Amino acid sequence: MEPMQEELMIDGGFGGYGARPGDPDAVLAGLDPEQRAVATALHGPVCVLAGAGTGKTRAITHRIAYGVRTGAFQPQQVLAVTFTARAAGEMRGRLRQLGADGVQARTFHAAALRQLQYFWPRAVGGEVPRLLERKVQLVAEAAGRSGLRVQRTELRDLTSEIEWAKVTQIVPDDYPVAVLKAGRDAPRDPAEIARVYATYEQTKRDRNVIDFEDVLLLTAAILEDRPEIAEQVRAQYRHFTVDEYQDVSPLQQRLLDQWTGAAVGAGAGLCVVGDASQTIYSFTGATPDYLLNFRTRHPDATVVKLVRDYRSTPQVVHLANGLLAQARGAAARHRLELVSQRPAGPEPVYTEYPDEPAEAEGTARRIGELLAEGVRASEIAVLFRTNGQSEVYEQALADLGISYQLKGAERFFERPEVREAGLLLRGAARAVGDPLTADAPDLAAQVRAVLATRGFTPVPPAGSGAVRERWESLAALVRLAEDFEAGRSAAGEPADLAAYVAELDARAAAQHAPAVEGVTLASLHAAKGLEWDAVFLVGLTEGTLPIIYAKTDEQLEEERRLLYVGVTRARAHLGLSWALARSPGGRASRKPSRFLDGLRPGSAAGAGRAGGRGGAEGGAERSAGRRAPRGPVKCRVCGRTLTEAVERKLRRCEDCPSAMDEGLYERLREWRSRRAKEQAVPAYVIFTDATLMAIAEDTPSNVAELSRISGVGALKLDKYGADVLSLCAGEDPEVERAAESDDPSAEVDADLTEDESGNSPEK
């Protein structure tokens, strides 16, 4: 064996690989016709389009094993790559069972790292730079050296942006333009991120370290620059299998192209398998384009579609197919119509709840019923869009004594921001005359005041990522305070900060109990690749799924695919639910996800946001006690259909030019601030910033025009209409009232300004 081969295959378990057991055709036994077509397609490029639950791993491992048993493949010449160590380990285990234990099955990074370590001394000289396993600390240092003050919670977002730039092969100087072109919601000013990115790269060079993206970059560069090394790799590996091909990044494809080289067209084997309808990681740089365009790049490719679903019942499959039937875009044009191979099961259950706690309690009760029917807890999952949604389900399950496990996130009370908040709240509870809480009128206000020192605001931060998740955790603590105070008040008991902290401690202790056989709580992203007998998809409301920061058509379609992934995790029992309000007694303004339109009973396909419940502040026309349907709202500037609440209110895209009267807007805000102080309410209770902006853009001259502005309902029109119209006419309603009353004491306080922390969540 050549030294290079020995180095690359050190973990391969090659003992006895020359003896292939049994009849090759035995490998094909039990495969359906399409899986058999995959297994026997041993020559030339092969593309397997495999729907959820169709046995793609079975098909590709049997293909490799069949190739080895027939002698078409030498095991040491086969490299199978996937995206997680778990998936690679599962593939190795299946191959060993099939008598192909000599095949290399690795992640992209593991395969590239082994090659980089082997070839570096020859291609570059010296030792391979040390691998930086966690880059966050170095990013923090780079930010400091770039003159930026970065919150700890921002570091993960900055790190993710650098990773995205590297896997999409964008250098620091090009980052600002690239992020704008991609429509990406950067966590900070793109120029600042580019500066941190450049400093981070320079710091790595100074210290002779590399990160995981560099492993791919450097390996690809060596193969590109040194043809003799590339030929050695291609002589070693003649047959490549790439799992989850819809998730490859441009950088991974670049490396794959170097591995295969021109040999693919000359007969070497490249087999890719994927499903464009399960592309849910585009924010990391993944793209389904390589899967969708595989036939274009390889006109002679064999294409096999796997559509027989062995996982889910016909009822679940019917819902999954219906969900994708409304999809749009390139991935949707290549969607697969699944055909269930299982006996009939229960129909999916759609449930509407009045509020989030009721939704969690109802879900927990249904889980209790399934457990009583004999379904194992480990075969049940509750899936949500963001990790911040987990706490209410943790509590609901704990209240019923149902054990659970969190996947892809710490338990709620183990999250760093929650632990830190607990320490601050305990300190505030012990302090006498704490200035933070001295002026707070109630418990919830005290909690908000304490958490404000760690970044909590009434308005959630824009975009996604660590900052948003941290905010969601802190917001959950505020909601707990509100609920705790309401419960104490109903029981006639006082609710102070000390009692609330004691309640937090009790909840944390109850939820730290070991959970061996527990219900899985997971985000939809973390659920990819898993399956359960029963799945509950919760929180399916507009603004959550699709998430509020999904603005473009492409982003919205990815949100639809995320729900599709959730639906196809269920084998038999599937529950879909949403809540009309956040808290008990709250305004029932939420609407079911547009993705359920045409699927849930009583809904019409394509209704989107127009036909749902609730809406913006204020009243709309009602008929027979129901809100009148609203049609699509087009941008007044560019004509694009608007989806965001604020954009719909303004009747223009956020980025389109504004015709707002800035002076009028400021006068409206000053007036609102005075009225809020008079009424002792937050400013947004009068009107939200978005509504004031809409008024300042339209400048209504009469009641009819004012009433047509979203957010100006009948009650507010009656209460504030005259004042607003006076302001629009250039008059000051306070001065007019003072003159009419002939009261010298009725003066206008021109120095009053609004605390911006009073903005509503619509801003």
From TrEMBL:
One of its GO terms (cellular component) is DNA helicase complex. Residues 658-738 form the HRDC domain. SMART domains: HRDC. Residues 583-631, 733-763 are annotated as: Disordered. Its EC number is 5.6.2.4. It comes from Kitasatospora acidiphila. Residues 29-313 form the UvrD-like helicase ATP-binding domain. It catalyses: Couples ATP hydrolysis with the unwinding of duplex DNA by translocating in the 3'-5' direction; ATP + H2O = ADP + phosphate + H(+). Gene3D superfamilies: 1.10.10.160, HRDC domain, P-loop containing nucleotide triphosphate hydrolases, PCRA, domain 4. The keyword Isomerase applies. CDD domains: DEXQc_UvrD, SF1_C_UvrD. One of its GO terms (molecular function) is ATP binding. The keyword DNA damage does not apply. Pfam families: HRDC, UvrD-helicase, UvrD_C. Residues 314-572 form the UvrD-like helicase C-terminal domain. This is DNA 3'-5' helicase.
